[in-house]
Amino acid sequence: VAPAQRRLPLTPQHVVLYPLVSKSLRNIAAGKDPLEGQRHCCSIAQLHEHYSLGYPDLDELQKNPQPLIFDIEVLKVESPGSYQQDPWAMTDEEKLQAVPLIHKEGNELYRQGKVQEAAAKYYDAIACLKNLQMKEQPGSPDWIELDQKITPLLLNYCQCKLQCEEYYEVLDHCSSILNKYEDNVKAYFKRGKAHAAVWNVAEAQADFAKVLALDPSLRPVVSKELRSLEARLREKDAEDKIRFKGIFSQ
């Protein structure tokens, strides 16, 4: 589709709140919460509360309102029914309906080897459910039901992060799961792999031992991980000996 443009002139009195709107839109484009940094108060109070919006051009516009001209460019045209809303723009019902679809898309991307894209899908699904969960009383049946839907998505997200070598994020998320669900084998296994990757040897061994205690059928998989860890330790010890020998021989 050829790009199309339309100019929409606005006078200064109509754009006094535009800097805040623009900041929210920029947060959305960056994958952040559109209300990041804002608290519940009127918009004028927001203007006075924040010394800076984080963008020099918006700060300048806030101090000196000017007429604005918006150039809107059509990037693509989608067929009816194909448009998928961003999670932040969905209603509660739409979020619940979207989660299984987003989960499925994430699984398909993961099977295709598109790990980063899959992680983003799992993150969107988690965000939908977390938003709904915030409206429930912690520990209530509805809260627990949502949390049980979040857990497998979070484990999928952790699997992606393991492959991306973002191990400390895996440690944080798996630990948060195990604080609530002490018998989650997958969380112990993924946390064990993350511990092993960052040389937390005792912690990795403890997690793998817990995996075996909960599911002895996983012994072949756990044994493979432990052998890999032991081999890496031997390599590291050999490298350290060579390194330190060079230091002491000087």
From TrEMBL:
<keyword id="KW-0802">TPR repeat</keyword>
<dbReference type="InterPro" id="IPR046357">
    <property type="entry name" value="PPIase_dom_sf"/>
</dbReference>
<dbReference type="Pfam" id="PF23322">
    <property type="entry name" value="PPIase_AIP"/>
</dbReference>
<keyword id="KW-0963">Cytoplasm</keyword>
<comment type="subunit">
    <text>Interacts with RET in the pituitary gland; this interaction prevents the formation of the AIP-survivin complex.</text>
</comment>
<dbReference type="InterPro" id="IPR056277">
    <property type="entry name" value="PPIase_AIP"/>
</dbReference>
<dbReference type="InterPro" id="IPR011990">
    <property type="entry name" value="TPR-like_helical_dom_sf"/>
</dbReference>
<dbReference type="InterPro" id="IPR039663">
    <property type="entry name" value="AIP/AIPL1/TTC9"/>
</dbReference>
<dbReference type="InterPro" id="IPR019734">
    <property type="entry name" value="TPR_rpt"/>
</dbReference>
<comment type="function">
    <text>May play a positive role in AHR-mediated (aromatic hydrocarbon receptor) signaling, possibly by influencing its receptivity for ligand and/or its nuclear targeting.</text>
</comment>
<protein>
    <recommendedName>
        <fullName>AH receptor-interacting protein</fullName>
    </recommendedName>
</protein>
<feature type="domain" description="AIP/AIPL N-terminal FKBP-type PPIase">
    <location>
        <begin position="11"/>
        <end position="74"/>
    </location>
</feature>
<dbReference type="GO" id="GO:0003755">
    <property type="term" value="F:peptidyl-prolyl cis-trans isomerase activity"/>
</dbReference>
<feature type="repeat" description="TPR">
    <location>
        <begin position="185"/>
        <end position="218"/>
    </location>
</feature>
<dbReference type="GO" id="GO:0005737">
    <property type="term" value="C:cytoplasm"/>
</dbReference>
<keyword id="KW-0677">Repeat</keyword>
<keyword id="KW-0597">Phosphoprotein</keyword>
